[in-house]
Amino acid sequence: MSTKDFLEKDYYKVLGVPKDATEAEIKKAYRKLAREYHPDANKGDAKAEERFKEISEANDVLADPKRRKEYDDARALFGNGGFRPGPGGAGGGSFNFDLGDLFGGAQGGGGGAGTGGFGGGLGDVFGGLFNRGGTRTQPRRGQDIESEVSLNFTEAVDGATVPLRMSSSAACKACSGTGDKNGTPRVCPTCVGTGQVSHGSGGGFSITDPCPDCKGRGLIPENPCDVCHGSGRAKSSRTMQVRIPAGVSDGQRIRLRGKGAPGERGGPSGDLYVVVHVGTHPVFGRKDDNLTVTVPVTFPEAVLGGEIKVPTLGGPPVTLKLPPGTPNGRTMRARGKGAVRKDGTRGDLLVTVEVTVPKDLGDKAREALQTYREATADHDPRAELFQAAKGA
Ligand SMILES: [Zn+2]
Ligand SMILES: [Zn+2]
């Protein structure tokens, strides 16, 4: 997630909730939209996918009270995506609002590295908007990284540790991040080393952008580094073992705090978001914390009752008592044989009985059934149906 998104994007609008929406309202709106735009439901639809990303991003900020407050504060300070000249800017005077200094002061005053002042969140906003090149010395929070992982049905129920390979951008080792072969870059003539350029945008105030010639670094390599071609950045990839908690469901987005890109100058690491894809199982299904299974029973078992053996996921079978007169489709509960919950307890296994009809009958069975038919000939199972059909 780019950090200047905070000022450019209206997360409330994305989720279609008012600014004073409660956590429950945000959660509800997110769930509804996430279902509607989920990639699995909109295969190949790039627009839906884009929308799904926006929705997830908005939810990540608004569903987290701390981040929501940072977001609200940032927007309250600078208006909705634009910069408003304060009262001092009136009367035609030049309005020059140095956000970098403003923030630097606030953070410095707070004392602790990365934790004082406004904290990492706002630091990110300013860091992203105003790259102060060589003059920037504030700790900076690492970027958030998004990744995906596929689990089979059982792994999702029980939880699993999976390897996750990620690539991120770090300072080039060969040139120590200077971009220069000899480590002696020269000062950028365009921005004179500040890494930023200002230009008026009407209204009597100016906007500051990263310098286009040095990409905000303030320095230009004299002899570009062979490894990074002068960018000073290098792709590094690492594989880490990620613990996926038990009970995750398909499409769920897990946030692993501090597992994103490392921070700069002692800043905290970003977060890692993992989108989980869960495969299906030939026998079992999932319903929140419960597992589901359909078990065939014979007609005599349904009518007379009896004990039936039911398979469980990864455990020994359980025996269920079928009461006499169990109708087709009745669901019974095997307690504690479902998916693992957050608190470590398990949901239930919901067992739905399905009365089967035999295709082939032996002579003896056929005879018995004929006798049964004669014995129940005076019962018409459709009598009530026709009565009701006439009634209204
Ligand atoms: Zn420059
Ligand atoms: Zn290099």
Automatic annotation (TrEMBL):
CXXCXGXG motif repeat start-end pairs: 172-179, 188-195, 211-218, 225-232
Residues binding Zn(2+) 1, per UniProt: C172, C175, C225, C228
Cofactor(s) the protein requires to work: Zn(2+)
Cofactor, free-text remark: Binds 2 Zn(2+) ions per monomer.
Domain J: 10-75
Residues noted as binding Zn(2+) 2 in the record, renumbered to the chain: C188, C191, C211, C214
Domain notes: The J domain is necessary and sufficient to stimulate DnaK ATPase activity. Zinc center 1 plays an important role in the autonomous, DnaK-independent chaperone activity of DnaJ. Zinc center 2 is essential for interaction with DnaK and for DnaJ activity.
Record protein name field: Chaperone protein DnaJ
Taxonomic lineage: Bacteria, Bacillati, Actinomycetota, Actinomycetes, Kitasatosporales
